[in-house]
Design goal:
Largest sheet: 2 strands, antiparallel
Strand order of the largest sheet: 1-2
Structural class: alpha+beta
Number of helices: 6
Shape: elongated
Helix content: 25-40%
């Protein structure tokens, strides 16, 4: 039996189960304006389309268990496929933290020769930092140039010869 206490649901021993906490956390950020991230979820008009915990469990529990088995409970998180879409069976999946980080509104995308990747993926592929590519973006470089113009991997301080004084006794 679940009961509603404010914005959170409690269900006896269920409240400590990770799967139930996922359900409860989603509902809270959709329905409770006092939650710090409400503005990014319920405040944007997103909806939670499951009517209750049992509906959510019916749709999402088996895939949750499969994902946990493959990636572990700590690396299993729910994400919306379309960031602007509601929480519902068709728009939710279980993902790792790394996968989920690629599905953020704040990500910047670069398209080069028909491939569109986020900055972090281009950085990994090119062997440079995200900050280096981010700098080029902020400077207004064309996407083609960001990828094609070679990166200067030298360290300006590497050219300075460091001389040590000999210790005299």
């Amino acid at each position: 039996m679940t009961r509603h206490t404010g914005s959170k649901l409690t269900a006896g021993g269920l409240s400590h189960e990770p799967f139930f906490r996922v359900f409860n956390n989603i509902r809270s950020r959709i329905t409770d304006p006092s939650i710090h991230c409400y503005k990014d979820y319920g405040g944007r008009g997103l909806k939670f389309e499951w009517k209750n915990y049992m509906e959510f469990k019916k749709d999402m529990y088996i895939p949750y268990l499969e994902h946990c088995k493959k990636f572990g409970k700590r690396n299993t998180t729910i994400e919306r496929i379309d960031n602007n879409g509601n929480y519902c069976k068709e728009n939710c999946r279980w993902a790792t933290w790394e996968e989920q980080s690629k599905n953020r509104r704040s990500n910047r995308y670069i398209t080069y020769k028909g491939r569109t990747l986020i900055v972090a993926d281009w950085a990994k592929e090119l062997g440079v930092s995200r900050q280096t590519i981010g700098y080029r973006l902020r400077q207004g470089w064309k996407q083609k140039d960001i990828i094609e113009i070679p990166f200067n991997h030298s360290n300006k301080y590497a050219k300075i010869k460091i001389t040590r004084r000999k210790k005299t006794i």
